[in-house]
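Exercise 7 asks you to align residues with tokens for two separate proteins.
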Amino acid sequence: MPPVFSHGDLRLYLLHLLDESPRHGYDIMQALSERTGGTYTPSAGTIYPRLAKLADEGLVTKTADGRKSVYAITDAGRAEVHGRADDVAAIERGLSDSVRLIADEVRSNVQAAMKSLRADLAAASAEERKVPRTPRGEDPRVAARAQLQRAEAAITEFRGRMRAELRTHVARGGELPPAVVDELAATLDAAATSATGALGPAERS
């Protein structure tokens, strides 16, 4: 993936963030990570030298706030941001594209997992139809409980795998768009309905 910020863009975007409101250095780093969907998580060694240079240029000010420092844009800095509004808009579009790529990747992974689950359910249902009825003398409830354990194990494995993938994605700073979660919920519901329908009516004793 190409760099999120081209040469000079990070400098301008820092001014843009401060034009929105004064911020602590950590707040700036968090804002950059959030707005890039986790594709860019800057270090203190990257951000603070740039803020210091902007202060030397008279574009931002630095004031103490307890043990932290608050950075605020000056009139000169604000004039530069407003004068380069088109450049700021282009950067914002680039960030939106980065977030969209991540959302597409997450959606693709979820769809692949759901497709695999549906295939497994269909295969299991087909296999069950091939298995002869329980021989006379064998308690069908014992066989049913054994299959129940298999089903529960498969569901637990799927849940654990998806949970780990999603948590890892979010922990790395990635976004999880509501549309992806909605699609996941809808597909799971459809899979549950399909599996329930394949069971058929329960026999009365």
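Second protein for Exercise 7:
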Amino acid sequence: MTITATSVEWTCFNVSIEDGVAHIQLKRPQAMNSMIREFWNELPVIVKDIDHNARARCIVISSTGKHFSAGMDLAVFGGGGSSSQNQAQDRWISAEQQRHHVRWLQDCFGCLDDARIPVIAAIQGGCIGGAVDMTSACDIRYASADAFFCIQEINIGMTADVGTFPRLCKIIPEGWVREMAYTGRRMPAEKAKEIGWVNEILPSPEACVAHALATAREIAAKAPLAVTGSKVMINYARDHTIADGLDYIAVWQTGMFAGPHMGEAFKAKSEKREANFPDLQPLKHGM
């Protein structure tokens, strides 16, 4: 039996796909959707299945309960420890192993950034610690009026390490990243919108999710190749110089400009109907 994102009862998530939109919903509200070990194991499997097998054209991540997520469960912090007593006594050996564990955690959110399709976060209540890392890896963020953001790591004596700083410094002014990182203060939704952390504020969590799904359906109606091309180019421009970005888009267009897709867009508009575009193809792994 082939395991797909929607065919499994996940510990931390509910997953549904409709109208070209995959909805991944955190489902542990009684625990403030903290990121337990299963969370880290399940999220990349779900996202990669949807992305690699072209099961949807856009992903929405939302949550349940009062808070979006309280961040990493404290039990996860022990996950990178040495398995040998002798190695545990050698801090340099242990540190090398821990580095790989942190890189693995980073990759769990990197799958959102690397996905060929856009990922939209609908955030309510607290978006704390690891949840900031996760939503920073999304393409678009919407928040309900009660939402707030907190780089919590400084409050427990550590430095955020799963993606907040490399990504958030590209999203909001660096001064705000520094203030949040050094003080551990909460930033309310209104201020987050003012500085560009979130695109829009909705009056309630339900309205926030509805808005995110509506935007996702709008994206899903566009030409998938053009959407993925846009994501690739935006990410590349974020990480490279203007000159490099201009050169790469020229190379991309040389290989993947799709005249028939443009023709269908114009034809559908003239005929006052929805355009019919081909889905992305599943990725090939192995021979």
